[in-house]
Task: inverse folding
């Protein structure tokens, strides 16, 4: 009986060991396969996100036709009550069924990446799809791009979780899906990739770049197979024949900077005010916002309702007078502020483009009237205006330039775009230091990293902490006895805690004082036994470099980040910093204290 | 060791199987999702197409009934459901122009022109809009581009129409020589088209090319001798050229066909009087001399009456002094016999007669009766080559 128990126990232990071994094996294989299926999964995420975004756009248009009629025009009563009723429905559903669908979706995706390990629930995806479509379709002044981004991220989150991937991988699938969703919504893969890097990930990450590109391209291919390959906007021919025209674009940059400031200030003022209201009041806010936005449409400006792409197209093709364009820009700011601040789900992307296009077309039309000798078309001003607002309001300068290039397919516009976007971006940064999306996250009690934040940081380099060489320097080729004599010649040699030894191979060795003293006092037999390849000679006859062994201090250059020195101070008391052009040529040294002092100085300055 | 390898293989197999199944499921889901999206999209696209067609039809109807503002709204809606649809865009641009949104229409057409700079219709509309904006040279350039542009359907006729429109515009812009060139090219392109010739005639007259106009009317009359318009216009032009015999004949023919305007009727009467008074070289010598003498008598009386009238106002007599000297000369008083054999003398008297009528009319005002007929003859002779 006992034997049987022992046998069973042994078998149990064995099977347990086998199970553990198998689990380990699976874990090891899982790590390897993750890399293999990562790219493949990105393609699937791109395709499915593309399909969902196509359906999302269809849903918006269907709902728009159903709710507002096929030709919404001023003085139609439904323009007022439809957005209001839709607002009521949205508020109820947001409160009781889909609590996480408020807002644009960009910050939520970012929060998913940095706070929830890339997790976005299926319910949120469904809720975002339905409620955003209802909001935009019923005329709320919001756009479909940001929700598309979150839908894509949600799809990625759901799919990747079926594969039992590691937490690290699961986290980065969210931005991959986000890029796919945005690329399909905007039919512009490069802009989508850059936007996700600038706004969602907040840093350049080589690890996900390949997957993001694959997902974005897959989703755009899917979207184009439905909508066609035409760009989102019918862009008129863009030419810049007279360089004086750049002045007009500079004016547009200034106007865009201030317009984005007005837009951002309105949102940052109204949103927290409305969110601090009692719960019952929040239930009515989307309806009230819908009523007001519908009122704007009812009394003549139907263009501000919904995403407003038709109006952007009309502005690009010079179908509004400049005063009308300015009025549209102003009322779009008001309408979007109301819709967004009320908590109605929907994006800021399209309204931003709308305001920029109107502003740009206004500047272009004004220029045409008062400076007719300049040749730029109104369409090109509208296009640059979109980029300007994008750069200044969304604080994505790189994306804004590429977006305009991608949407226009015309490289000759690059100069005006860079000029105007830079001016607007600088104005916006100076007058509104915290980007609007970052402010939203702060209002929501979150502090997420951003590229803007990274841009603000001035990274320190070794050259900022480097000090002149004040320790004794010995030649590694010298014998121990010669080295001892050389060291004795240094006046402060005895006080120095470390000594630098230049070895024959151009590398350095930072020896501690005690280490050298030990070397100098060792006997021949001990030395030769330690070095089997060296012939038995007197210790004093061996070179210093040979006695120090093969280990050398790391090769550091002045332009390397200051933090790169930190891991080495545990082993070395001092680190030589050498010249990149001349191997082994000493530029100076850094100690742990130097590095810490430099960081302290920077901290004091920033405070 | 063997056990471990076996387990590893088993675990690997399980993992591969799991991944394969998951990917298969994913593929299946993607395919199903694609099929559903495709189905919905087709339905969506067909509904959009229907809406676009319905709204464009409304837009067309509004344009036909002359409500361009309504057409603009309808066509904009149509374009919302069929963005980039060329025919709708053209209609919308046209409707914008018709609704008085010249600037918007111009810009819209410019946008269309950028994609199709050789399109005849777009260039024509741009030319018209540029003309409205008083950009003469731009309008002319667009008209020319339209003439040489591409047209759907009967390009030759459309190009000719545009050329005629350009000619009219050039006439308006006081560039008659350019207009004449365009009109002659238009006529040269369709030499046997009598309707065109009838259109070209008045335009050529407006372009200060009455002889070319007359050629066109004569071309019409060669094919249609009873064409009233051609008869009237040709008669009027012949009368203007001082070819009174020809004018009288043509206008008489026209008068037989239908009732002429008072102006043309007066021309018939005047030309009859002129023919009765004119000392044509075709007349027998005796009759010619008789007419010369009759004319001389009329002119002399006119001179004397005018001279008396001038004498009443002091210091004005000197204006007719040289004419008076000519009337006092021997040639001016030659008798019938002397004139009958001296054609130079005949010409000198005719010249004196005409000069007298012209100068007297300038100093003493417009004459009446036979003097007026004589003056008409004198001035017509002056313009006749």
Result:
């Amino acid at each position: 009986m006992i034997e049987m128990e022992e046998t069973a126990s042994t078998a149990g232990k064995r099977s347990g060991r086998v199970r553990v071994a198998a689990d380990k094996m699976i874990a090891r294989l899982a790590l390897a396969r993750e890399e293999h299926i990562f790219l493949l999964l990105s393609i699937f995420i791109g395709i499915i996100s593309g399909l969902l975004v196509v359906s999302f756009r269809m849903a918006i248009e269907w709902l728009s036709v159903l709710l507002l009629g096929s030709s919404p025009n001023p003085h139609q009563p439904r323009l007022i009550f439809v957005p209001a009723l839709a607002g009521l429905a949205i508020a109820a559903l947001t409160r009781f069924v889909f609590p996480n669908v408020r807002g644009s979706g960009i910050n939520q995706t970012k929060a998913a990446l940095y706070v929830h390990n890339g997790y976005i629930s299926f319910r949120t995806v469904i809720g975002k799809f339905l409620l955003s479509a209802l909001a935009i379709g019923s005329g709320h002044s919001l756009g479909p791009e940001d929700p598309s981004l979150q839908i894509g991220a949600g799809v990625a989150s759901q799919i990747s979780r079926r594969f039992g991937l590691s937490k690290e991988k699961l986290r980065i699938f969210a931005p991959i899906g986000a890029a796919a969703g945005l690329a399909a919504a905007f039919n512009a893969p490069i802009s989508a990739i850059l936007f996700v890097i600038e706004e969602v990930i907040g840093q350049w990450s080589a690890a996900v770049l390949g997957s993001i590109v694959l997902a974005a391209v897959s989703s755009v291919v899917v979207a184009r197979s439905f909508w066609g390959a035409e760009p989102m906007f019918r862009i008129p021919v863009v030419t810049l024949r007279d360089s004086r025209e750049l002045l007009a674009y500079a004016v547009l940059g200034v106007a865009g900077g201030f317009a984005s400031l007005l837009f951002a200030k309105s949102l940052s003022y109204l949103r927290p005010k409305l969110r601090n209201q009692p719960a019952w009041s929040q239930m009515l806010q989307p309806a009230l916002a819908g009523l007001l936005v519908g009122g704007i449409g009812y009394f003549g400006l139907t263009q501000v309702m919904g995403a407003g792409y038709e109006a952007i197209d009309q502005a690009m093709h010079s179908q509004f007078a400049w005063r009308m364009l300015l009025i549209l820009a102003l009322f779009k700011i008001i309408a979007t502020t109301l819709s967004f601040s009320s908590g109605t789900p929907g994006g800021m992307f399209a309204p931003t483009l709308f305001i920029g296009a109107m502003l740009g077309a206004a500047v272009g039309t004004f220029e045409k009237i008062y400076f007719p000798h300049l040749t730029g078309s109104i369409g090109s001003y509208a296009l640059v205006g979109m980029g300007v607002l994008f750069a200044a309001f969304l604080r994505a300068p790189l994306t804004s330039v590429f977006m305009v290039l991608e949407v226009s397919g015309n490289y000759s516009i690059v100069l005006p775009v860079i000029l105007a976007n830079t001016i607007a971006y600088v104005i916006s940064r100076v007058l509104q230091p915290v980007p609007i999306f970052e402010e939203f996250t702060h209002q929501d009690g979150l502090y997420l990293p951003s590229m803007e934040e990274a841009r603000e940081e001035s990274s320190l380099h070794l050259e900022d902490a480097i000090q002149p060489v004040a320790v004794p320097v010995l030649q590694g080729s010298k014998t121990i006895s010669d080295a001892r004599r050389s060291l004795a010649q240094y006046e402060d040699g005895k006080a120095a805690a470390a000594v630098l030894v230049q070895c024959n191979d151009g590398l350095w060795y930072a020896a501690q004082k005690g280490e050298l003293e030990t070397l100098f006092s060792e006997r021949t037999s001990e030395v030769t036994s330690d070095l089997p390849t060296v012939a038995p000679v007197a210790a004093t006859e061996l070179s210093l470099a040979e006695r120090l062994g093969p280990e050398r201090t790391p090769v550091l250059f002045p332009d390397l980040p200051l933090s790169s020195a930190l891991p080495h101070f545990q082993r070395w008391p001092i680190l030589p910093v050498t010249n990149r052009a001349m191997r082994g040529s000493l530029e100076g040294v850094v100690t742990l204290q130097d590095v810490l002092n430099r960081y302290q100085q920077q901290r004091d300055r920033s405070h | 060791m063997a056990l471990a390898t076996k387990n590893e293989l088993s675990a690997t197999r399980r993992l591969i199987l799991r991944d394969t199944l998951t990917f298969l499921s994913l593929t299946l889901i993607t395919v199903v999702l694609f099929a559903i999206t495709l189905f919905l999209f087709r339905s969506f696209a067909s509904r959009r197409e229907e809406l676009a067609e319905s709204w464009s039809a409304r837009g067309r109807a509004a344009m036909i009934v002359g409500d361009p503002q309504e057409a603009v709204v309808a066509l904009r809606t149509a374009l919302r459901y069929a963005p980039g649809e060329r025919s709708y865009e053209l209609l919308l641009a046209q409707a914008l122009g018709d609704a008085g949104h010249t600037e918007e229409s111009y810009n819209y057409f410019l946008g269309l022109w950028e994609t199709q700079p050789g399109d005849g219709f777009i260039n024509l509309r741009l030319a018209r809009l540029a003309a409205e904006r008083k950009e003469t040279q731009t309008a002319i350039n667009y008209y020319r581009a339209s003439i040489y542009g591409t047209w759907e359907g009967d390009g030759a006729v459309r190009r000719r129409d545009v050329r005629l429109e350009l000619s009219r515009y050039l006439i308006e812009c006081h560039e008659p020589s350019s207009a004449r060139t365009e009109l002659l090219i238009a006529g040269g392109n369709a030499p046997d088209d009598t309707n065109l010739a009838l259109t070209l005639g008045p335009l050529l007259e407006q372009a200060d090319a009455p002889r070319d106009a007359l050629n066109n009317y004569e071309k019409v009359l060669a094919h249609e001798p009873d064409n009233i318009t051609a008869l009237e216009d040709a008669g009027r032009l012949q009368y203007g050229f001082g070819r009174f015999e020809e004018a009288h004949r043509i206008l008489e023919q026209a008068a037989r066909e239908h009732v002429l305007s008072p102006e043309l009727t007066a021309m018939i009467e005047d030309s009859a009087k002129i023919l009765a008074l004119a000392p044509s070289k075709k007349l027998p010598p005796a009759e010619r001399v008789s007419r010369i003498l009759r004319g001389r008598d009329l002119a002399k009386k006119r001179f004397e009456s005018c001279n008396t009238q001038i004498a009443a106002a002091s210091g004005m007599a000197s204006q007719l002094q040289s004419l008076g000297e000519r009337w006092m000369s021997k040639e001016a008083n030659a008798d019938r016999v002397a004139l009958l054999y001296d054609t130079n003398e005949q010409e000198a008297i005719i010249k004196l007669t005409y000069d007298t009528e012209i100068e007297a009319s300038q100093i003493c005002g417009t004459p009446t009766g036979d003097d007026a007929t004589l003056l008409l003859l004198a001035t017509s002779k002056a313009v006749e080559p």
